[in-house]
Specification:
Rossmann fold; alpha/beta; 3 domains; globular; six-stranded parallel beta sheet; single chain; two-stranded parallel ribbon
């Protein structure tokens, strides 16, 4: 708050939101009689407090409790926190009934399944296809959605080798951090390891057993990258970064589901790394079903799902 334009003292949006939430005397102008809260299943506590400080207005709360993706970073599902009459919106205008039925099957496995079923459009022809995990991904324009950042690199490398123009959406810096630390560990440079998960290991040979005991998806698939590319792994990541086409020029978008919330494509391919997390005995199943539900409902016409995940759709 010093006013100095440095990262050390800069005031961010989150600081301002927190300050606003603690200052009920700061309110929006009375000319705003209606306040619409969208994506209400994924708001932070400070924003919720700001809205509650305006409960003299007409509040319209919109969201889907089953699309909550950011609980892991403190987001709250505020759908049930406002004392409002509920109007379920059960019809999707994005896709047909095949994708709607697929979504209903996923959500039926939730610990608190929805009381209303999702309905698609009869005039939209949509399809759901289960593909062999051991073969190449279906080759068609659209989006490939992964569960982990590391899997993006494996897929991007394969797509570039096929001559496809790609656009990746991920935090490359974080991915490099994970992979570099795995390389340090593999090269016995343990003094350089700063990743919290990896820093506790005395040597590289303990990594696989640690992943079996305490799964960590990004480290697991980072290890798979290292096993595939060895010391060239950072070069591969940087080559993909250099060949990352603008989104409007790309034929394929490769992204984690968390990075494409609210977007849609004609075709969606679900990557195979979802099964690693869903099949873990300690999985937060409700949260992971939500991620998968969000992923398949990005499609308008076609969804391609790994056969390993078929049991979650039966």
């Amino acid at each position: 708050m010093s006013g100095r334009a440095t990262s050390e003292h800069a005031t961010t949006f989150h600081h301002l939101m927190k300050y606003w939430s603690l200052s009920p005397f700061i309110s929006m102008s009375d000319e705003y009689e209606n306040i619409i809260i969208d994506e209400a299943q994924d708001i932070n506590g400070a924003f919720y407090k700001v809205i509650k400080n305006h409960d003299d207005r007409n509040l319209i709360v919109i969201g889907d409790a089953y699309q909550q993706l950011f609980k892991w970073r403190g987001a709250i599902n505020s759908m049930g926190l406002f004392e409002k009459e509920k109007y379920p919106l059960t019809t999707s205008y994005r896709f047909g009934n095949a994708i709607a039925n697929c979504s209903n099957n996923i959500l039926s496995r939730h610990s608190v399944p929805p009381t209303h079923t999702l309905v698609g459009q009869n005039n939209i022809k949509s399809k759901v296809t289960f593909y062999d995990d051991d073969r190449c991904l279906p080759n068609l324009p659209g989006a490939i959605l992964t569960r982990t950042r590391s899997k993006i690199i494996t897929i991007a490398d394969e797509e570039l080798s096929l001559g496809n123009k790609i656009h990746i959406k991920t935090e490359i810096g974080l991915l490099k951090f994970v992979v570099k630390n795995i390389v340090y560990l593999a090269n016995d440079e343990v003094d350089k390891v700063t990743h919290p998960y990896l820093a506790k290991l005395p040597s590289f040979r303990f990594l696989e057993s640690e992943l079996e005991d305490t799964p960590e998806p990004d480290v697991y698939f980072g290890l798979k990258l290292y096993e595939k590319y060895k010391s060239n792994v950072i070069d591969v990541i940087e080559r993909i970064e250099q060949n990352n086409s603008p989104i409007h020029e790309a034929t394929k978008i490769i992204s984690t589901t968390h990075s494409i919330k609210g977007q849609e494509w004609d075709s969606i391919v679900i990557a195979s790394d979802y099964s690693y997390i869903l099949d873990n005995e300690n999985v937060d199943l409700d949260s992971e079903l939500s991620v998968l539900y969000v992923a398949i409902t990005r499609a308008k016409e076609a969804v391609y799902i790994p056969c390993k995940l078929k049991k979650y759709f039966d």
